[in-house]
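hey all, quick one before standup. I had two proteins in the batch that finished overnight and I want to keep them in one place so we stop losing track of which output belongs to which input. First protein below, input sequence then structure tokens straight from the run.
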Amino acid sequence: MMTENENITGTSFFDRPNVKLDTIPVANGIPFGIESMNNSALGIGGAYAAWGRSIDNAQLPEFVGDRLGEALLDTEIMNLSELGFVSRHHIPQLSDADHLALELEVGTRVLNEAISANGWKAEDVEGVLIGMSGPVSNDYVAQIAGRAGIREEALKVSVHKACDGSMGALHLALNPELGVPGQINVAEELAGKKVLVGGIEGLSRFTSHARDKNALQLFGNGAGVIGVVPGENMKLMVGKSFENFDREGLLQVRMYYPHSREMAPGKSLLEVSQAAPNHIRVAGMMHEPADGFPVVMAGLMGMVKLFVRSGVEVVSDVFREYSELMSRLDTGKQIDVGIVHHANYKINLLKGKQLLKEGVQFPMPWLLSDFGNVSAASCIIAFLRQLQSIQPGNHVMFDGFGAGTYYDVMAVSMG
């Protein structure tokens, strides 16, 4: 399981030796860094990135104070190193046009780098599935796919399930049981095809008008995209998608995407719609802040209450199904590694301890100290940072969870 202070270092992402640095020509120039990964034995590669100024824990209170227009009190400054984070990336205040130009360029570069890391050509990609908490435009996925040279006929899927977005996207690509009647069954459509899956989160834009002092300290920009061939180099064994509306508003998030905001007994919180002929939108209902702000958090204990109890239940259910499957197959295989959303280190540590009480145990490394909480991008970045250690035939547990609340947990076989 996760151990105390594992892999929590003071290195900035921009200082990593294999990160390619550049400046995106928007406004006065936005720093951009990207790193690609590839595991040829698995046939899987990808890329992850950050953009904006790299701000460490010591610099963060001044930055947040400038955003708020008032200094943080000593009692309001979070001990972020204990929460697993030492730096994160933020952009200055920009116009709407500059925000769009910046994130289109970021998304295009990440898709292109992921395509290259897999040794593919853009015209070979037949699906692009991206999780985003607050998209900069409703057609963002279609726009970046087109700019990256991906064919218009390729299937695009935008997934808005907050921090669970990329895992919701991956689950859709792997699990045909998630198909919605009357809609394209994404997993059946993409089986055996070259597919890009990831999360792209411009959270510095998203939180720029927030007044929540915890959110302004926890979140930052990040993006990660991997290339998979569903059913070939990544095969679903068991998986569960779960939703449980956050009635208490422990993590309130504004929906910057189309959603009816209707709730009815027995009705899913997810609305699946056809955004365009080759573009599907999966939009999750959120408990929105009453004052119109982007995000309002109930504090760290609220996050523990929100995610740990249901999260342990969902992971335990999937682990139990996985163990039963291994028994039926008469194999001694076990989960080799867990890729868990990096909400914060203490949440994941507590979750690991609670899972242990349920008899569930597998490694859950902490891998994102230099990003902060990057929502839907975090599981993909964590997977890419673990990629070189994964061997063909290894079993990986993906554990996504996010505001709303939504959970997607999968056990997959690699290579």
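OK second protein, same deal, sequence then tokens:
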Amino acid sequence: MNLVTNNRDDGNCVEASEEKARKLYGAISRRSFLGRSLAIGAGTLSGGLLLSQRAGAFASATLTPGDAALLRFPAALEILEADFWIQYNELGGIQDGEVSGGFGIPDYTKALSVLDSDMAQYVHDNTDDEITHHQFLNAYLISKGADPANLDAFRTLMGSTATGVNTALIGKRLTNLTQLTLDTSWWTRYRDDSHNPDLDPSFVFPQAVPSLATGQHTAIPRTDADLKKKSFIQAMANTAGFHFPTIEQGGNSLYPSLAQRATNVEVLRILISIGPTEIMHFQTWSDKAGNAPPLTAVDPVTGVSVTFPDLNSPPFGGEEFQTNLIMPEPCPFLSRSLPGCSIIRPTKTDGVANGALKFLTDMGLFIGQSSAFFDYVKGLADDADAAVRGC
């Protein structure tokens, strides 16, 4: 890993910093249609709060372009996370003063509860967490005179129209939960004590639910017609149950990977403080996914079949699939000459932002989004990946 050290007199660092600044401000100019005085949108920060934050104690300091990029990219991802968690909460969570909107679908909520009786509460709390993450990150950026992340121009996706959703948000979603292709290899990656993707980038970890990795699957009822067959309702809930940890394990890796590029100690503090909450989410959801009942169901609209196996029985089973092994198994870390260690993996920093964006895109989460959306988030990822510690 060839990161420039924290030496501001280093010629390479100065050159890298100047190039990043040109790239960052050029990207901001290209994306000026979003405006510099951005209205952060429904469910985020009000203009009054933004102004008060900007005038507050933080306003005297500024961020390097790199540090701003390291916060702006996760802010955008947290906005995206909040968008799909809000959709889940409308249909299967608790609607209250903290997370409002929608009024649930009883049959879907009941199917989620098969995975755990407290699923509605957990969905609610995860939703609330993601909302606070992007609100804080954007407020902090603005307090430093930096541009926040804003995706309001891209709230164009339909989402569910089933009875129970927030009808005011139909056609105004950022993410698509109805055409998911899920990579569930994280299940075996965290149970494998011999391989680490940082040291074994070409090793293929087995899928926990192979059929989720092919075709497109809906994790929520698209319309009321999806509620006619009990087995399909449970299949949607199971898909959601595996989507939850699939998403959150990405946050596990993203925050510590970005933190290694931070210059400002306060930026480092932010990244290593938010990151562990994603770890808490992941462990919670990985435990619940293990409770998904074995079944096979066929999507009545697309004809795509999905099979949720009994992970404790052949041809699965063994330590790589055992459902109650939710603590990360020790694995090689940094060097195989060192003892194995229980860690978050991967945490290499090179290209991590673009890697996270590709992961979400391959999942189908953005099916239906515009080319302008991809240009914008790709620009944020490029800026984050270009950040150099000490510059």
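Flagging for whoever picks this up: Strands lie at 295-298, 305-308. Residues 116 and 288 are 6 Å apart (CA to CA).
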